[in-house]
User: Fold these one by one.
Assistant:
Number 1:
Amino acid sequence: MTITVPLKRATVPLRAEQHDRYLRTLLVPGIGVAGQQRLLAANILVVGAGGLGSPVLLYLAAAGVGQITVADTDVVDVTNLQRQIVHSRESVGRRKTASAAGRICGLNPDIAVTERGFLTSEDIDEAVASHDLVIECSDTFDTKFLVADACASAGVPLVWGTIISTTYQVGAFWTRPPTGLPATSLRDLYPAAPPTGSTPSSAEVGVLGAACGQAGSAMATEAVKLITGLGEPLIGRILIADVAAARWNTVEYVAATRGQEAEIAHAEAIMRTDKPAMPDDDLTERLP
């Protein structure tokens, strides 16, 4: 079964120079010309331009996603450069959205970039509903659940990720998927945010830059799959990785029913790890 996200814009034929630029993508079985046309017509909201958002934004731009909105409120700090590869030393002190937009447009002139600041409960519904797909790369639980709840309400597919130290998780959620796929949301996996102070921050335990690259690349891949129909998306499954142990597991879960928490099919795989189950992305970005 081919699974694709509905697009708000119609696809258009590729120009000759686009055939050359995207040739290696066109040759991928399951994508081809039709898939590349869908990428160019797609409109994706990326929340967060930090450790996860950086590789996500770069690979979306390289893939030719036609419209990208990047939402972030932070400015680039020198401590970010160890992992936030969309930014450069010259970007220190600039808004992350402006830094990322400049890098994206320099990488691929086919891309139209929109910058957004802080997302609130007043504007999140409009922000989500105006896009084909959302990728959540933020560094706070409040934002993660705000975005996830808005996507669940609007039926907009969500690609989600979180990372701490050398471990990360990546998944995809969609409350109105095509027939044959389970309807899922972040709260099926995590019914509520963890208690304050129960999860260490990267300011305490660090974060490996290359692990951010892995996680962000996996998230960008899930987005490309959902836009083009390539392969099998991570819906109803969660990717759990510990790069220090060179261990990657895919864990199945089932959607919560009313009044019940999610049942994790292989919860023991999570319980065996001594790493936090749902780590924050990058709290160091919000330190003075």
Number 2:
Amino acid sequence: MRYLKVAQFHQNLREMAAIRVLSRKLPTFASIFFQTLTRNPSIHRISFLNLKPNTPPKPSSVFVAQFHDGRPRGPLWRGKKLIGKEALFVILGLKRLKEDDEKLEKFIKTHVFRLLKLDMLAVIGELERQEETALAIKMFEVIQKQEWYQPDVFMYKDLIVSLAKSKRMDEAMGLWEKMKKENLFPDSQTYTEVIRGFLRDGCPADAMNVYEDMLKSPDPPEELPFRVLLKGLLPHPLLRNKVKKDFEELFPEKHAYDPPEEIFGRC
């Protein structure tokens, strides 16, 4: 009987030593373990020395932590992981100073020009995503002054489309002319958004000028700009008939819808 008590005492010492070593190496796990041990009275005792390597744990020894383990979580806005700290600082600074031209120019000279290439591209992309088009244009002007800059039609496209959607057609056409000077040609989406912007502003003549420029483009025209014009030029039957004729010649298998004559007259 005395021998059994001594063996039991040594067994308890070995278990306490194992728990102490585990708590030193894995403090977070030990904290979770002891909290669960105190909260769940059904877990009385777990023997770490009697567990075999290939033996699955018993149901009574398995527990699930249903509380925060204290480790830091990631940012709620996952896009921040793709943007460096310098780029984030510049974005916040540009937005903070956008109402003060003097401070904004000073901030650009002291902070924006020192950014790396990837950070500059991240800044202009994020400004476009947040619809800060004016700041994105300033960032684009900075990028154009860099040694690594090469004419990029996609940068122009994003800015022109943003300006057209914001009903700032004069600025959009200013970038349009700069793009043409760099021997770049818009794609179908750019033509479509600019034409839609002029039609929205009630300027069918300007929309037709862009349309004529599209016909001269080296890339073959697509169907969508024609559809936008055919719909937007319903109050202007003469202009619409010209676009419809070109549409039927380029897309003979397609059909152009004509509204009833009592709505807009005979087209």
Number 3:
Amino acid sequence: MSIPSTHQQYGFSIEQWLKTVLRWELTPLRISLLYLVLGTGSLFFSDVLLVQRVESAALLAQLQAAKGGLEVLFTAGFIYVLTKRSRRSLQQKNASLRELKEERTVLHRVFRHNLRNSMNIVQGSATNLARDLPAPNDNQDIDRILRQSDRVVRLCEHASTIEETTMVDDENHVAIDLSKLVDATVTEIRAQYPDVDITTDVPDDLTARAHPQLETALEEAISNAYRHAGADSPHIEVSAERTRENVVVHVVDDGPGIPDIEYEALESGPKTSITHGSGLGMWMMNWVLRQSGGALRFRPSGSGGHVVFVLQGAER
């Protein structure tokens, strides 16, 4: 004679119920409720059923002690199972994230490399075409091609900087001599834009602790001031000072100021920035400053834009 299963007797299977429970996502609420039910059942068994059914005080004390030992053993096993399961789930998620990050990095690098190479070809071809035209300075189409291809190249560079920024921990921040940093950046900017007028005022002993990509952020701030200046010979002032708590870098220009769309880029993130055509420059600067433990600020200026880098000071 065969013994009927729980499914045959009661319409459900204990094995299936256990499999369902083990597949549960053990949220804090479910863990608390499970422990509450088991704890309440244990108290009811020891303080109600045993007291009513066991008349011998000595035997009751032994049963209570045994029950207490089982509770300790069950609690330890319960914590071990939860910890092991959480650790295994965390390891699986970390492995999946590492794999996704590696795939994203490879795809982004291949895409940026190919796109940059293609834009370089477009720029070279447009430059050659403009040279062969009778009046190259009057051809708006050629000028538009050069501007847009240059914008795409800058987008690739900003995306690369953002990716490198996320891969550096706070422990890898470096002490940066701001005087040397500003001199090197201004020299590079003057090579790119010969008509720019830049003055600097940075103390020789001023050092900040920041992300290694701070130079890229400063170059973007100065380049952005030049591109939005609107004057034939824009004037830009780069200065730095030490305050009571921080080191502050100022980039002031005589242009029309920061466009409203750039402020929207900082508030809404890169998706809105790209959608509205403002690029990643301002957002990249903000990210580098945040990763440096500092902040990107804007101050009103009577004659143009005023970008402020707030940084942590460092001892020389």
